[in-house]
Amino acid sequence: MEKVRAKRICIIGAGVSGLPCIKQCLEEGLEPVCYERTAHIGGLWNYRTDLGENAATVMKSTVVNTSKEMMAYSDFPPPADWPNFMHNTYVNQYLHLYANHFKLVHHIHFNTAVESVERAANGKWWVALSTGQQELFDGVMLCTGHHATPFVPNFKGLEEFEGRVLHSQRYRDYKGFEDKKVLIIGIGNSALDCAVELSRVTQKLYVSTRKGSWIWNRVAQGGMPYDIIFLSRIYHFLQNGPFVPWSLTN
After folding, report:
1. Which of 42, 104, 164, 227 is the most exposed place for a label (fewest CB within 10 A)?
2. Residue 38 in contact with residue 46, Cβ under 8 Å?
């Protein structure tokens, strides 16, 4: 009896999404082939100082705003003695531990970018690589994330501003901002990470937001991570049920 060939699956990116995709493909009897354009796994969590095009990376000081229990893979908990809210170096180390434990690394082609993906006449997929090769796959998984391309609003008069304009996607650390007057536009996670770090070295720091916002601590009363408490089923029930006014839950 002729052996059925395992379906080949192209996985683009070896970050937090790409790694479990490799693992899941192996468990389902598929043949995963992962392409990673850098020399390391980790994607966003592999801190780099280069500011090349689409070089997505965390800031040097980034600490996750989700507790390790809530962000970990369900089948591979982080070491118990690691901090609840991990510095990005811990997250990167965790991803390496995960990849080595499940023997995923030898399925990854490093320093290889995917240039294009096109549907073949037979329903499969042609994948063109930066090496000049072209490979045929049964399926493609896009695990490139959504932090590589910054969105820069078109503010009136911005082109006349003589100071430095920098998107948070390209921010690495505070150097160059010492004793400056800085305006941060936005109040999301990245904006506030920048604000906290820059507040220690700038002359003046302003945060601009279109509307008010709740600022949550990472740790709730009693020292428990806030997400373990507020992302529970009972909290979800109270928040979405008829018992608590909308004005309080929002």
Report:
1. 164
2. yes
Structure tokens at 73: 């893979």
Sign of CA dihedral 151, 153, 157, 161: negative
Domain boundaries, the chain: 8-142, 158-208
What is this structure's pTM? 0.86
Q: Which two tokens stand for residue 60?
A: 């040097």
Q: Where are the beta strands (DSSP E) in 70-215?
A: 108-109, 114-119, 125-129, 134-137, 139-142, 181-185, 204-208
Domain 8-142 has CATH 3.40.50.1860: no
Q: Residues 15, 45: contact at Cβ < 8 Å?
A: yes
Q: What is the pLDDT of residues 6-23, one digit of tens each?
A: 999 999 999 999 999 999
d(CA 250, CA 69): 25
| Sheet strands side by side (includes 31-35) | 108-109, 31-35, 8-12, 139-142
DSSP code at position 181: E
Query: Per residue in 207-226, pLDDT tens?
Result: 999 988 888 888 888 888 88
Between CA 42 and CA 91 the distance in angstroms is 8
User: Six-digit token pair at 107?
Assistant: 């399925």
